[in-house]
Amino acid sequence: MTTAKKPARAKKTSTKKPAASKKTAAKKKPIKPVSETSNPRPWKQRCWSWFWRLSILFILVLGTWLVYLDAQVRSQFDGNKWTLPAKVYARPLSLYPGLLLSAEQLIAELKWNDYKAVSHVVTPGTYGREGQDWIIYRRGFSFSDRNEDAVKVRLSFSAGRISQLSVAGQTEGLVRIEPQYIGGIFPAHHEDRELITLKDVPPALVAALIAVEDRAYFDHFGLSIRGILRAMKANIAAGRTVQGGSTLTQQLVKNFFLTNERSLRRKVKEAFMALLLELHYSKEDILQAYLNEVYLGQAGRRSIHGIALASRFYFAKNVQQLDLSEIALLVGMIKGPSYYNPFRKAERARTRRDTVLNVMEELNIISAAQRINAQGQPIRVAKSGRAGQREYPAFIQLVKRQLQTDYRLEDLQNTGLRIFTTLDPWLQHATEKSVQQHVTNLEKRAGFAKPTLEAAAIVTSVDGAEVRAIVGSRRVRYFGFNRALDAQRSIGSLAKPAVYLTALASGRYDWSSIVDDKAVSVAGQDGSIWGPKNYDKKDHGKIFMVDALAKSYNQATARLGMKVGIGQVVETFERLGVEKFIPPYPSILLGSLSMSPLEVTQMFQTYASGGFAMKPRVIQALTTSDNQVLTSYALQGREAFSPELIERLRYGLQQVVVQGTGKRLAKTFNTTKIAAKTGTSDEQRDAWFAGFDDRHLGVVWLGRDDNKAMPFTGASGALPIWQNIFKQSGLEPLTPLVDLDWAWVNVYGQAVEEDCGGVRKMPFKSGSLIGSEISCDDEETFSGPQVDSIEKERQRSSSWFDWFF
Amino acid sequence: MVRLVFLALVISFLTACSSIPNSLKHDPRNQQSYEVESDTANEYSQQDDILRLDEGKHHPAVQVLLTQAEDARQQDQHQQALSYLDRARQIQPRNSAIFYRQAWLNYRLRELQQAQQLLQRARLFLRGSNASHEILQRRIKTLQNKVDAKQGL
User: Fold this and answer.
1) Is A163 strand, coil or helix?
2) For labelling alongside A100, which of A216, A634, A734, B12 has CA 20 to 30 A away?
3) Which of B59, B89, B117 sits opposite A638 (nearest CB)?
4) Are A637 and A759 found together in one domain?
């Protein structure tokens, strides 16, 4: 190629030159064509000149590039190296004398927190039994309000309650078990890690890592020529890539700064960055970064990074607690976390672990006896789907939503915040289990293909509105559409208590008031007629108002609602905590309005708490990664209704269990002291159940995503789910909030003295009965009122509703 | 001098009340406060206000938290104190004395609306008519008056 070009260039020169210097050529002898052999210097000079120019240019470009890389290396490696997702914790289990706590719950909560049952309790994170007593070695933990050291706790039980609590032989009033990790708020890449300092890593792990991944780590300057040659030799001999020549520094650079792209350009960049990294940082700094950066597997959407988190994920232990076999396995997995995954490829993982142990012995890191002992152990890993490593999507979504009103999403995803929440793992598991079991059973019963039915459930504490459990789908690990928060469904008869509350609050009605359950029709503004019917398609005539609620009669409720005024009922909804616009149409009286299970919970919370309107609360406190409290969320709630009025309403809701649509609960729990309401929307598209005992409020929704009809009502579809949740949590019968006056009432709804024709005992507003009870001597008792309660109402108030009758 | 005598009385009262209540076989959540039951507190009870968050006689778990709350308050860590009180409330969600303390601390922090709401709850869960509840009732009234006065009601 070179020789072929040369004559051409020479010819070109010979033709041009004479023309260029005509005068000179005329005076002087003709110039001979210049040949390379005769005078090569100008060409060589030119080449050199170009070479130097290019070299200088190359050096300048390289220098600039290196300066850029250097800036990149230093800016990313100094300070916070990683974006740390916010960690979300459940409520801690508080132990104190008098607490009702089953052994089943205690064991479950310890297990979910990665505590191990042992015969001798000597290390934190273990527990055991000594006779009737329990010994728990609680780990040290930074709670949101204080750091607490590891302590050995002794618990004695009597009749299912904690009778004695002591720490190191001293009686204690209160001990907390550290809260369970329940998920994170991750950035888009879903990287999760726990940071660890080099001094906290067992020396054997560091030694094993260096032995296996980069033996010359402490001798090279970022690149290992010997390592590259050795890898080349091994790869040529094998005829394929069997060994890498990258140092730990290069691996860190690749993982930390670069991508997995396989190209020469990336490799060169990696080499230079490794050199720069070694130039600026100590071997220890680089090693520590490597141990925190290294990828070690996948847990659902989470990618497990760093040995600290990997140790917890695979072995349910702190790194310091790992034994030799576990250390070797963890180090061995670095080569291929998926390929050597001990959950799925136990045999492959064992072989890899043994190889690492062989290398460790070969380099005198461990003795032959240690190697034999470690290799003799089976591969023991904690379950990957165990509670302590599982996420609770519906709850986490609510946490995220509530926090985003105060914090930026980026801060939640990147700064390692710690979020302490109200979730009760025991109740959460009960709720999940109940939803999953019942939805499957109901589907079978209805002959539906799986999956047709969906469900959502929320459990809160009655007094503080703390959300204790939440399920947003039958697929409880699903991070998609959260029906508990976002499904807007018709609430059916769950609206009725608001109508009755409005009636009681008006002062014109008591539970003994007689209401008329007969056909009703109302003309709308557009001329359409609204004519609700009862579920059983029957008229029930004149009945006590309380029976209309307990048996969920539509006609009586519609009539009552129209009498007290739709505007008043809408106002009641608003006072109860419903924040959305409610159109003042008659159909809202029977629940034609749509709400999410969370909104229904907020509404029922006001009944459950004794009249205090509260938003369901999920966050207790938020701290930085170094435990500085950013916000603690206190109990809030305005008194929307007087406790006395709510207590009267609660009597009506209890009658649902005594004689109404929730009657089966009385049999199951052997008490009627439960306040509840069933709800079924038109054509049975939605089945609801909301109820509370003295501790918890539970709201359950069952329906189809395509909004089609189901062969279930609130009582047959949603109630059994509620019932199972409360069976596991333990039901505590309601206690009265305030004292009401009680009196017998006759068939006309009049308060009468005892044994004077009374048919039922009912509560009245405190002090309202004074002088109003009818005695046996009174003739009115026997003749009945001249006009019944409804007629009285008609005379007393003339609502526009009257025009329709 | 009067303050010293008063302080001595308070300390002697707290010492006397330090024993653990004997009704531990019941769940503490529905128990009322054991606060100010003895005659030794008569002089103190005239004050109708509390000086310390941990005064009185309470369930052991609640007592631990009230003591921690008082320690935090003395170090001007009011939010910390409130979080201890909230933990106490979750153990005994219907204990008027805890709500009263939460209200009192909120009042000190000029969170008047919050104080008012907590007082309403303290009143709701007030039960019985023994001396301790009368005192608590009076205290609630005193604090309520202060809150109302500050709010210009």
Assistant:
1) strand
2) A634
3) B117
4) no
Task: Assess if residue B22 is contained within a domain.
Answer: no
Residues 6 or more apart whose CB falls under 8 angstroms from that of A344 comprise none
CB contact under 8 A, A99 and B28: yes
* CA A580 distance to own-chain centroid: 26
Written as one letter, the residue type at A424 is D
Closest-CA distance, B6 to chain A, in angstroms, reads: 28
Where chain B has pLDDT below 50, the residues are 1, 4, 7-8, 10-26, 29-46
Would A444 be classed as within a structural domain? no
Closest residue in chain B to residue A91, using alpha carbons only:
B87
> To probe the interface with B, which of A96, A157, A424 has the most B CB atoms within 10 Å?
A96
Residue of B nearest to A640 (CA): B117
Count of Cβ atoms closer than 10 Å to residue A664 Cβ: 14
Total domains in the fold of chain B: 1
> Is there a catalytic annotation at residue A142?
no
Contacts with B117 from chain A: Cβ below 8 Å: 612, 636-639
- Establish if B71 belongs to a structural domain: yes
Same domain for A169 and A195?
no
Q: Which residues of chain A make contact with B24, given a CB cutoff of 8 A?
A: 97-98, 161, 163
| Nearest-Cα residue of chain B relative to residue A647 | B124
Residue A667 Cα, gap to closest chain B Cα (Å): 25
Q: Give a three-class secondary structure readout of A177-222.
A: ECCCEEEEECCCCCEEECCCCHHHCCHHHHHHHHHHHCCCCCCCCC
Nearest by CB to B24, which of A145, A163, A462?
A: A163
- In CATH, what number is assigned to the domain containing residue B90? 1.25.40.10
Among A434, A473, A490, A493, the active-site one is: A493
| Domain CATH number, residue A110 | 3.30.2060.10
Cβ atoms A654, A672 nearer than 8 A: yes
Report how many domains make up chain A: 4
pLDDT, tens digit, for every residue of A271-285?
Answer: 888 999 998 999 999
Final residue belonging to a domain, choices A146, A178, A210: A178
pLDDT tens-digit map of A361-404? 999 999 999 999 999 999 989 887 777 777 899 999 999 999 98
Residue A6 lies in a domain: no
Nearest to B124 among A100, A172, A610 (CB): A610
For A591-602, the pLDDT digits (tens) are 999 999 999 999
A67 found inside a domain:
no
Contacts of A638 in chain B (CB under 8 A): 117
Residues A586 and A545 in one domain: yes
Lowest mean pLDDT among A347-351, A474-478, A724-728, B60-64: A474-478
pLDDT value, residue B132: 65
A166: domain range?
92-178
Has residue A281 been placed in a domain? yes
SS (H, E, C) A278-306: HHHCCHHHHHHHHHHHCEEEEECCEEEEC
Q: Do A163 and B84 touch (CB under 8 A)?
A: no
Q: Which residue of A has its CA nearest to B106?
A: A634
CB contact under 8 A, B28 and A94: no
Tell me, yes or no, whether B94 lies in a domain: yes
Mean pLDDT, rounded, for A320-336: 94
What is the pTM for the complete model shown?
0.81
The complex's ipTM?
0.78
Which chain B residues touch A97 with a CB distance below 8 Å?
20, 24, 28, 59-61
Measured distance CA(A494)–CA(A470) in Å, rounded: 19
Is A213 part of the annotated catalytic residue set? yes
Residues of B in contact with A161 (CB under 8 A): 24-27
Binning pLDDT at 50, 70 and 90, where does residue A622 land? very high
Mean pLDDT of all residues belonging to chain A: 87
Q: How many CB atoms lie within 10 A of CB A587?
A: 18
Round to whole Å and give the CA distance between A646 and A463: 14
Query: Quick one: tokens of A211?
Result: 């032995």
How far apart, in whole angstroms, are the C-alpha atoms of residue A104 and residue A107? 5
